[in-house]
Amino acid sequence: MGNVNFKILNGNNLKMYRFSSREVAFLFYNMYARVKGFSARKDKLLRDKNRQIIQQNFVCHKQGRRTNIFGDERTRKREPMKDIRCGCRAECRVHIDCNSNRWYVKYFDDEHNHLLVRANHAGLLPRHRRMQDADIMHMNHMRRAQNGIRNIYGSFANQMGGYENVPFSIHAMYNEVDKQRKKELPDGRGALAYLRSLKRDDPDMYWRHVTDERRRLVQIFWTDGHCQRDYSVFGDVLAFDATYKKKKYCCPLEVFSGINHHNKTIIFGAAVVSDESKETYVWVLEQFLDAMKGKMPTSVITDGDKAMKKAIEIVFPNSYHRLCAWHLIQNATRNIKIPKFLPLFKNCMFGEFSVAEFERKWEDMVAVCEVQDESWVNEMYEKRTMWATSHFRGKFFAGFRTTSRAEGLNCQIGRYVNVQSNLKEFMESFNRCTDYFRFKEIEDDLRSMEGEQVLITPLVGLERSASNIYTREIFILFRTVLSNASTFRVLGKKRTATRVIYFVGKYKSHNREWNVSYCPVKIDFKCSCLKMESVGIPCNHVVAVMLALDMGEIPESLILGRWTKHAKESVNVQYQSKGWDPLQTCRYVSLLESCTQMCKLACRTPVVNNHTKKLEANHDHEDEVGHDVDEDEVLDRHVGNPAVVRTKGCGRGGSKPNLGGRRRFHCGICGGLGHNRKTCSMGNQANIVQMTDGVQIF
Question: How would residue 642 be classed by pLDDT, with cut points 50, 70 and 90?
C-alpha cells in the first residue's frame, strides 16, 4: 500500500485491486478515506448457506441517521453529543472470489452529501484514531518502564514527525489501558498469580500472605532465590524501613536491605502490610526468618518505631538493634530548641570513646544545656545502648549508622512505581528495580576484577595486597587508612606469654593511646578501638604496627570475607551443586567473569532460639504457600483486593473498610447527595434572591 497514490484513485482503479482478506480490504479503503477527507466504518455482512462471510459493505462514517438524540431529559446528566450522521450514501462493497479466495471491489460509490474535511483534520476522525497491535505493544513496553501516557504519546509524535501524524488520540491510549486492566484478574488474585508465575522460573521463590474475615488481602511478604542467596552471604547486617503511597492502596511497603561486598545497597525481600502494629511486624519478621532458613542477622538498624522495636526483640532476640542516627538528630532538633545542644548530642552519639567517657560527656552536656527535666533527653539516655557509638564498639554494623540507605532505596523504588500502580503492577516494577540493582552489582564486579589499581601511597606492598583482595570500593576505603597510618607511631610494647602488646599513639599527640595485641603464631591482631570488629577493615593503629613489623601483605586474620572480590563464590558453588547456575540470575551476567579463587566467609553463625527452631520445623514439614499446589490456587481465587489505607502508621482508627463503590459526598448547603454547592438548587435560589437585594454572598 505504500506505493499507492490514493489522491488520484477512483472507482475504476479500485476494482483492479485484489485483497487477501476483508481486514486488508477495509484498511485499504480507510486509508483512501483519510486522503479524501472522511473515515470509513464496517456495515452489513452477507453470508452463504454455510454461514461463511462472502460480502462486506464499507460505508462513510456519516452514513445513516441517529435516533433518540435527546433521550430522557429527566435522567440525562451530560450534554448530548453532536449529531454527525447525515445519511451519506458513499459505499464500497467487497466480495470474495471463490476461485482465488481473494476479495475484490464489487460496488463503489464515492458521492458524499456533505463537505469533506481538510487534509490536516482527516487524521482526527474516529476511524483514523485507532491503535494498532504494534502501537499497543510499544505503549505497554514504555509503561513497564514507568513512562506516563502523555510522555508516551509525545514519543509517538516525535517518531512520526508531529502530533497530527499520530494515527490515534491520547484518549485511545487511556481507553486501551483501561481495557487491559479490566481483562486482568482482580488485584489481590493477580498479585498472587504473578508470584506463582515467578516460581516456575525460580524454584526458591517464597511468599506468604494473610487475608481478613472478608478475604481481602491484608499483608504479603515475598523474596526470590537470588535474595536468599545474597542474604546467606551478606545477611550479617539488616536494615528495613517503611515507605508510603507507592501504590494506589497507600499500604506501607517494608523493604529488607543490606550491604554487599561493594558497599552498595542490596535487597533481601519486601512486604506490603495494612498497618504498622507489633503483631504485623512480628508476622513479617517471622516470614523473613523462615524464608532465610532461620538465619538471624547479627545487627539490625531501624528508624526507632516502637512496634518495630518490640517485634525485633521477639523474633531477633540475639541481634544488636541500632536506631537511625539521622532520625535521632531530627528528633533532637524538634524536641530541644537550644542551639548548643545539637553539636554536643552529636559528639555523644558519634564519639569513639569508652563508656565511662561517654557518661562524663553526657553529664556535662545535660548540665551545660540545663535539660535535666526534658523527657526526651531522659528517654534517649535510657536508650543509649541503641544509638551511642561507645556502646556499639565491637558490634558489626558494616559502617551502618543511619537508615539513609533504606531511604535512598525508597527513592529509587519511587522512580519505578507511582500512586496509580495496583499491587501486581507494583510488584512488577519493584522486581524491575531489584533487577537493576543486581545489574549494577555485576558492573561493580567487572570493575573490581578488570585491570589493576594504580598505587598512589608509599606503602606499595600493603596497597597491592589490598587491591588484589578487596573490591574497588572497599579498597578505596582501606587506602585512606593506609594514607593516615603514617601519622601514627608505636610508642612502646609489652610481651606476654602468647602475645605482644603495642602502644600506639598519634604523631605529636599525647592525649590518646591505643593498645594493639599481636599473636606471632597465628599472625592475629586485635586493637582496643575495635574497628576491625565493627567495620571489617583494619584500623590505622593495626596498620602502624604492621609497618613496624615490616609486613608486605595483609594477613588472613584481617580479611573479612564479605568485603572481598570473591565473597559470593562460596555460595555460588554451593548452589551450583544443587543445579542452580549463577550466570542465569540476570540477563546482564555476560559481563561477569567467572571467579578463580575460593575464600571462606566470615559471617557469624546465628544463635538459634526457640523461635528459630519453631520456624525451622515449619520449613521442613509444611507445604509452602509458594508451592504449586492445586488447593492453594483454588484458595487464591477467593482473595480480594486490599483495602485502601486511610492513615499512616498503625492507625488505631484503622483503615476504613472498603464497602465498594465511590465515596459519596454531601452538599455543603442542603446536605443532599449527588451534587455540590455550585450545582445545588437551594444555593442558586438563595443567591438569586440575595443578589436581587444587592447583597453579595461570595
Answer: low
| C-alpha torsion 196→201→202→203, nearest 10 | 80
DSSP 129: G
What is the tens place of the pLDDT at every residue in 578-627? 444 443 433 333 333 333 332 333 333 333 344 444 444 444 433 344 44
Report yes or no: 345 and 332 within 8 Å, Cβ to Cβ: yes
Write down the pLDDT at residue 186. Answer: 62
Q: In what order do the strands lie in the sheet with 524-527?
A: 488-495, 500-506, 513-519, 524-527
Assess whether pLDDT exceeds 80 at residue 86: yes
416: Cβ–Cβ under 8 A, 6 or more apart, which residues? 146, 429, 430, 432, 433
Asked if residues 557 and 522 have their Cβ atoms less than 8 Å apart, the reply is yes
The HSE-up count of residue 364 (CA atoms within 13 Å, CB side) is 12
Name the grid cell of 390: 561507645
- In whole angstroms, what is the distance from residue 217 CA to residue 426 CA? 15
* The total number of residues written for the chain in this structure: 698
665 DSSP assignment: P
pLDDT value at position 65? 84
CA distance 642 to 372: 47
End-to-end C-alpha distance for the chain, whole angstroms: 63
Cα dihedral 434, 439, 442, 446 sign = negative
According to DSSP, residue 470 is labeled B
Q: Reply yes or no on whether the pLDDT at 197 is more than 80.
A: yes
| pTM exceeds 0.70 | no
Residue whose cell numbers read 489501558:
177
Which residue, chain included where needed, has cell 514504555? 142
Distance CA 683, CA 677 (A): 7
Burial letters 381-405, b for 16+ CB under 10 A, else e:
eeebebbbbbebbeebbbebbbbeb
> φ and ψ at 258, to 5 degrees?
-155, -160
Angle at 134 between CA 130 and CA 140, to 5 degrees: 95
User: Is the Cβ–Cβ distance between 257 and 265 less than 8 Å?
Assistant: yes
Q: Which residues pair with 41 in a beta bridge?
A: 59
- Residue at grid coordinates 429527566: 74
Other Cβ atoms within 10 Å of 221 Cβ, number: 24
Distance CA 615, CA 287 (A): 9
Amino acid in the structure at residue 448: S
Least confident of 101-105, 189-193, 229-233: 189-193
Distance of CA 19 to the CA centre of its chain: 49
Distances from the Cα of 487 to the Cα of 261, 435, 482, 515, 544, angstroms: 28, 44, 10, 16, 9
The answer to whether 249 and 237 have CB atoms below 8 angstroms apart is no
**Summary mean pLDDT of the chain:** 78
Which residues make beta-bridge pairs with 489? 505
Residue type, 8: I
Q: Are 461 and 552 in contact (CB under 8 A)?
A: yes
Contact 56, 25 (CB under 8 A): yes
From the number of C-beta atoms within 10 Å of its C-beta (0-12, 13-18, 19+), residue 246 rates as buried
Q: Residues 149, 154, 155, 157: is their CA dihedral positive or negative?
A: positive
User: How do the domains of the chain map onto residue ranges?
Assistant: 6-129, 184-323+402-447+628-658, 325-395, 460-563, 665-698
Q: How far apart (Å, rounded) are the C-alpha atoms in residues 534 and 350? A: 13
